[in-house]
Amino acid sequence: MDYQAILETIYQQVTAIKDKGTPAAYIPELAHIDVNNFGLYLQNNTGDVYGVGEYDTKFSIQSISKALALALASSFDAVDILKRVDVEPSGHPFNQLALIEIENGIPRNPFINSGAIVIADILVSQLENPKADFLNYVRDITGDTSIAYDLNVAASEKATGHKNFAAAHLLKSFGNLHNDVDTVLDFYFHQCALHMSCVQIAKAFHLFANRGKCQVNKLRLTEQKVKRINAIMLTCGFYDEAGEFAFEVGLPGKSGVGGGIVALLPDNFVISVWAPGLNKRGNSKLGMLALEQFTTKTELSIF
Q1: pLDDT at 218 over 90
Q2: Rounded to whole angstroms, how far apart are CA atoms 119 and 66?
Q3: Most buried in the list 140, 146, 150, 172, measured by CB within 10 Å?
Q4: SS3 78
């Protein structure tokens, strides 16, 4: 299959669309990003790579980082994540607060903000230097020491993240946040402010397409843990648009309000896309369309 030709066709068709969505203006540092940016990158399990557009341009990965945080938290065998976070689709926006009270402080899944904050709390408890250790984990699984936090984005999120503070305090009131709210959210805002390209994201997610085996070193997750994380990505990776993504694209994946999406077919490939204009549900508008076209043209999905 001529993957490069397929990516180039998708690039031409998708970038010609006039309505490219709207950047995540509620995070001031993301409001000014040009919606004309578009990058698409494919890495298969045999080592072949293909790309079009700004696939090597770094951007704020935001909630894509939640899957990486979950993978690191899952590596601690003494931690029973399922006692503190459920694995059900929420059917609600990513920053929904009402469910925290309705479900007695147990977030519906690890990818809505409240669930990701609990995962951040676990990492703060388990890691000696949480921000440095998490960054080193991402560098290790990619083999890329140039990956860093965008400190301006982290500061911007801290200054405007009122709902995240509200969610953290609600979790604390139910006893499901063990560390200080400010400490946990400082880590969480930095986690979301990872600055990566489509190439680097594809490398980071290779272990999810490779049965937990990292391509650059001996780091690995068990196949059972990878299976579970992939399942959560399929059912919860796109918030209240997860069902539509599964229906239209048919791959496990994770989106972020920085305009990035990563998706994968186990034992086959990882594909990542960046287009900063979002749809009404907070997912990349052109990114969703590009991945739908990719699985339609290649007939490759988990179904």
Answers
A1: no
A2: 8
A3: 150
A4: coil
Q: Per DSSP, what are the bridge partners of residue 284?
A: 278
> Residue 91 region, left (φ>0) first, then alpha (ψ -120 to 50), else beta?
left
Query: Is 241:230 a contact under the CB 8 Å cutoff?
Result: no
The pLDDT tens digits of the residues spanning 28-83 come to 999 999 999 999 999 999 999 999 999 999 999 999 999 999 999 999 988 899 99
Block residue for tokens 């930095």: 190
User: 29 burial class (0-12, 13-18, 19+ CB within 10 angstroms)?
Assistant: buried
Cβ-based burial of 80 (10 A; exposed 0-12, middle 13-18, buried ≥19) = exposed
Q: Going edge to edge, which strands form the sheet with 59-60?
A: 59-60, 194-196, 148-149
Please provide residue 209's backbone torsions phi and psi, each rounded to the nearest 5 degrees.
-95, -5
